[in-house]
Design a protein that fits this description.
Elements lengths: L1 H5 L5 H18 L1 H15 L4 H8 L3 H4 L1 H22 L1 E6 L5 E6 L2 H11 L14 H19 L14 E2 L2 H5 L5 E3 L4 E2 L1 H8 L3 E2 L2 E3 L5 E4 L3 E2 L3 H11 L14 E5 L14 E5 H9 L3 E4 L5 E4 L15 H4 L1
Antiparallel strand pairs: 1-2, 3-4, 4-5, 6-9, 7-8, 10-11, 12-13
Helix pairs in contact: 2-3, 2-4, 10-12
Length: about 325
């Protein structure tokens, strides 16, 4: 090894990799295999940098002690799985403004499940999608959470179904001025409250002048059952132009908000994915039904001075 280093055949980082790898080989397969490993690794070092050499070193037993390689690989895999289970954790730190900072390490199986769930949702939804990769991953995780909540199969919480609860005043909501309060404390803007109310369960409650509960009505789901099925049959997915999100990732949106006396009907509803639902509530786009009863979207004047209506032809093609 010294001769190889002195002669420039290997550099210092490669020497460290070779030493670490040979130590493992010696402990696993003995002195003879370790000596063979030195020769093989020095030869590889002429072609690969330290990082690739370390990766190749994980398969060195295939070359110097093939009869032990499978057993060693299985033992290494078991050790890796044990470390993954031991080290798994998720930390949720609440910020002062209601946001959460997530950090942690997922075990291998959970990591695979998370990637399988969010990867299909992280691609840009069109040329106008200006979100960063990190923002798309955030929105994908939000979509997965909403889908899980809609199943109604999550464990109960305090006797209630798992749900996001927002409290607001009906009068303020109709005037588009009132903020909402989450049951965990933070406030939401009027725009966020109206967006959430598009596809929600409404539980009316009458309060006295000092805030005491006088009466609680029956919970009413806005867009569900036969109406949602009809909406899925018509729109087949997110109706925003160019979006490919399927129905299960979509929410019902009231074209004329129910708080503005908009009907909860097929003629006043459209399917939108979470991203485009937020985009419609916070942006300058408008949505309406065309003469054939299908949704069309009117872009803002700064994007299209003629404001020609656009449709999503993606789902129609199939």
């Amino acid at each position: 090894m010294r001769d190889a280093l002195a002669g420039g055949a290997v550099d210092v980082e490669q020497v460290r990799v070779i030493a670490d790898t040979v130590e493992i080989v010696h402990a696993t397969a003995g002195t003879e295999a370790a000596d063979k490993a030195v020769g093989v690794l020095v030869e590889w070092a002429a072609q690969f940098d330290a990082a690739l050499l370390r990766k190749l070193g994980t398969r060195i037993l295939d070359h110097v002690a093939p009869d032990l390689a499978d057993a060693a690989a299985e033992a290494a895999l078991r050790a890796q799985e044990s470390r993954a289970v031991r080290d798994r954790h998720l930390t949720i730190n609440e910020q002062t403004d209601g946001r959460l900072r997530l950090s942690g390490i997922l075990d291998t199986e959970t990591a695979a499940a998370l990637r399988a769930a969010i990867d299909p949702l992280t691609s840009p939804t069109g040329l106008d999608d200006a979100r960063t990769p990190g923002q798309r991953r955030h929105d994908a995780l939000a979509d997965v959470c909403r889908l899980a909540l809609r199943t109604g199969e999550l464990p109960g919480n305090g006797g209630d179904l798992a749900q996001v609860v927002v409290t607001t005043s009906y009068d303020e909501l109709t005037r588009q001025l009132g903020t909402g309060v989450l049951d965990i404390g933070p406030h939401l803007t009027p725009e966020a409250v109206r967006r959430l109310a598009c596809d929600a369960s409404i539980l009316p409650a009458a309060l006295g002048s000092t805030g005491q509960v006088l009466d609680v009505g029956r919970q009413r789901r806005l867009i569900s059952g036969p109406l949602r099925r009809a909406l899925v049959l018509r729109d087949r997915g997110c109706a925003f132009p160019g979006c490919d999100r399927p129905p299960r990732w979509c929410e019902g949106h009231h074209i004329r908000h129910w708080a503005d006396s908009g009907d909860t009907s097929l003629d006043n509803a459209v399917l939108l994915c979470g991203h485009h639902h937020r985009h419609l509530h916070h942006g300058d786009w408008a949505v309406r039904l065309g003469g054939d009863g299908h949704p069309e979207f009117v872009p803002p004047a700064w994007l299209d001075p003629d404001q020609l209506p656009r449709r999503n032809h993606y789902h129609r093609r199939r």
